[in-house]
Design goal:
4-stranded mixed beta sheet, 12 strands, 4-stranded antiparallel beta sheet, alpha+beta, 2 domains, globular
Length: about 260
């Protein structure tokens, strides 16, 4: 009888804990906090730390992460908000790493979430929220992983010009094209990783600074934001420059996500 009572109390405790986690990390929150602009994030109440199943199912360009104050606060933000993003993206934000370098465990949730942190040390608070709500923690490890390698396909490099002396890195938009000046090819890897959700490594062996351009409009932007449509766009873009992406493997530092409990 005593053992039955103890087990009953234990079950009640687990249920109470589960309810507490749900209330703490899946609360009823104003959707106005998720307006995808810094002003709305700054106006949200202080000391909010929560994650919830997304309330939004919108066009791809209306999802993402907002940092405050301003875009330059990605390194050391005071507030962070994400709308309709994957758990992988949330973990990448919490541990300050590109999502392409996050290795999720088998069976991880695939539904998108909303999250907001307006408390001090927002990244650490977000890490704790992920652990409490989903049972995940993460550590950086060097592991063998699949990658895409940028390779030279056409040595003439059509569409790419070596930068002139005295040029500085900049980008400008004119007549439907984005013009980029004084950039090394290895600096493309970050943007490619964000679009393709897989590590990208520069194996061209090219070290010069280059000038190049690409077509740019809202439709192209939306296709690049969706991993299911980004690859054909990027393959065509790189081919115009004499480059290509080839599958490979490499030992890289990855954020390996595991069950904490």
């Amino acid at each position: 009888m005593t053992r039955t009572i103890v087990m009953f109390i234990a079950v009640l405790w687990v249920l109470a804990l589960a309810l507490a986690i749900k209330l703490a990390y899946f609360p009823s929150a104003k959707d106005a906090y998720f307006a995808m602009d810094e002003r709305s994030l700054q106006q949200a109440p202080a000391n909010l730390v929560f994650i919830r199943p997304t309330h939004f199912s919108l066009a791809v360009f209306r999802r993402g992460v907002v940092y405050a104050p301003g875009l330059t606060s990605r390194i050391d933000p005071t507030r962070i908000m994400g709308r309709d993003v994957s758990l992988r993206d949330v973990i990448a934000v919490a541990w300050q790493l590109d999502s392409a370098r996050v290795r999720m465990p088998a069976g991880a949730p695939t539904n998108n979430v909303d999250f907001i942190v307006t408390a001090s040390q927002p990244r650490k608070r977000l890490q704790r929220a992920i652990r409490d709500a989903f049972g995940y923690s993460a550590d950086k490890e060097t592991v063998a992983t699949d990658i895409l390698a940028i390779k030279v396909e056409d040595p003439s490099l059509p569409g790419i010009v070596i930068s002139g002396k005295g040029e500085h890195e900049r980008s400008r938009y004119r007549n439907g094209r984005l013009y980029i000046t004084h950039m090394r090819l290895k600096e493309l890897t970050g943007g490619l990783e964000q679009a393709l959700k897989i590590p990208v490594v520069d194996e061209t062996g090219l070290t010069n600074y280059y000038d190049f351009s690409l077509e740019w409009d809202t439709q192209l932007f939306m296709r690049l934001r969706d991993p299911s449509t980004a690859r054909p766009v990027l393959d065509k873009l790189l081919a115009n420059w004499g480059l290509g992406l080839e599958p490979d493997t490499a030992s890289l530092e990855m954020l390996v996500v595991k069950k904490a409990w």
